[in-house]
Write a structure and sequence with these properties.
This protein is α/β, with parallel strands linked by helices. It is built from twelve helices and eleven strands. The chain has helices at about 5-15, 20-25, 45-50, 60-75, 85-90, 130-145, 160-165, 165-170, 185-190, 215-220, 235-245, 250-255, and strands spanning about 35, 40, 55, 80, 100, 105-110, 120-125, 150, 175-180, 200, 230. The strands form three sheets. A five-stranded parallel beta sheet has the order 8-7-9-10-11. Strands 3-4-6-5 form a four-stranded mixed beta sheet, sandwiched between helices. A two-stranded antiparallel ribbon has the order 1-2. Helix 4 packs across helix 5 and helix 6 packs parallel to helix 11.
């Protein structure tokens, strides 16, 4: 249930085209809907400006399908992260409108197309091609959270001339999400070149001593460039949400 939908219902009551009882019935499942195995947070779009996102790993196909049907009936876009390909194939038989983005392991059922807003562009940058799955999770979620998104991939520190070639695009961003594995150096490099917020995402990409992303995580936390914000290993979704909040700072006050 989005803010616009609630305003629409209240407008219909004001115009006497809907009775108060009908409005209450439409709003009955706020702030959440209890399905027994899950409580769908229908109020999240109103509180935070983004819909609830379903973490697909660990949930059964039937559970995700049930959640998806109820979210669709509430006119909320369904976003399922960490959705394996085999589970997505089974889920599509129950949710025929499911759009599966294999690179990001994200499943979508779009009820309403997002309309970009915010101060500017969220630019997603990767050190290497192997970091793209995590970057795509960030980019797709950022798009669905109503941001304009640009992608700059495979510009890692093994060839700094690649970063230099993209300086204009990097500096024109409102917020940057920088995704890197191995030693996790790229966010420090980017943060040293721009005057915009940098959200660093360590990935689990790397050889043995990368320890599944811990080396990149610690490297980013110890960045020499000040002001780098770090999310958890492989957490593209978390980076997208943080970038969205930064990109919208002050917009609500402007409306008033």
């Amino acid at each position: 249930m989005t803010e616009n939908k609630i305003r629409e219902i209240l407008g219909l009551v004001h115009q006497r085209r809907m009775s108060p009882d009908q409005a209450v019935d439409r709003l009955r499942n706020l702030p959440f809907e209890d399905l027994g195995f899950a409580r769908i947070d229908n109020h999240r779009s109103l509180r935070r400006g983004v819909p609830e996102v379903v973490f697909g790993e660990g949930k059964t196909v039937d559970q995700i399908a049930t959640i998806g049907r109820h979210m669709a009936s509430a006119e909320v876009n369904l976003i399922v992260t960490r959705l394996a390909a085999d589970k997505a194939r089974a889920l599509r038989r129950k949710l025929t409108r499911l759009d599966y983005r294999a690179d990001a392991q994200i499943g979508l059922v779009i009820v309403k197309e997002p309309e970009p807003r915010g101060h500017g562009t969220v630019t997603v940058v990767t050190a290497g091609t192997s970091d793209i799955p995590v970057a795509e999770e960030a980019a797709i979620c950022a798009e669905l959270f109503e941001n304009r998104v640009e992608r700059i991939y495979d510009v890692g520190v093994a060839g700094l001339h690649r970063v230099a070639a993209k300086l204009d695009e990097l500096r024109s961003a409102s917020v940057l999400i920088v995704v890197a594995g191995m030693e996790g150096a790229l966010p420090s490099v980017v943060a040293g070149l721009v005057d915009k917020p940098v959200i660093a995402v360590p990935t689990s990409v790397g050889y043995g001593a990368s320890f599944g992303g811990i080396t990149a995580l610690l490297g980013m936390l110890n960045s020499c460039a000040g002001g780098v914000t770090v999310v958890n290993i492989d957490n593209g979704f978390g980076a997208a949400l943080a970038a969205t909040m930064i990109n919208r700072v002050g917009l609500a006050d402007r409306k008033k």
